[in-house]
Amino acid sequence: MSDKLTRQLFAILRKAGRLTRDERVRLYRWIIWRDNITSTNDLSTHELEAIVSQLRTWDQAGVLASEIELAVNA
């Protein structure tokens, strides 16, 4: 996994507020539709890129926190 992408992921997640590990895993599963994720380390580079891209899109639209909340509670 790319360290640079991982840093970008956690930086954008911090903008949305504090998420627990379980909430982050639920978010990853929701965005990439893969249920066997147990940690950030389970993500491929491609999956990590997709998650960061989605989070950036939500951030630019001004809906990052609300979309994460919806995904985590889905």
Task: Give a brief rundown of this model.
The chain is an all-alpha fold. It has one domain.
Considering the chains and any ligands shown, give keywords for the structure.
0% strand, 4 helices, 74 residues, single chain, mainly alpha
Can you walk through the features of this model?
With 74 residues, the chain is mainly alpha-helical. The protein has one domain (3-72). The protein has helices at 3-15, 21-32, 45-60, 64-72. 14% of the residues are buried.
Number of helices: 4
Structural class: mainly alpha
Distance between the termini: 27 Å
| Alpha carbon gyration radius | 11 Å
Strand-and-helix sequence, N→C? HHHH
Strand content: under 5%
Tally of domains:
1
Which runs of at least 5 residues are low in confidence (pLDDT < 50)?
Answer: none
How many beta-strand elements? 0
Overall, the morphology is globular
Helix content: 55-70%
Q: Describe the main β-sheet briefly.
A: none
Mean pLDDT: 92
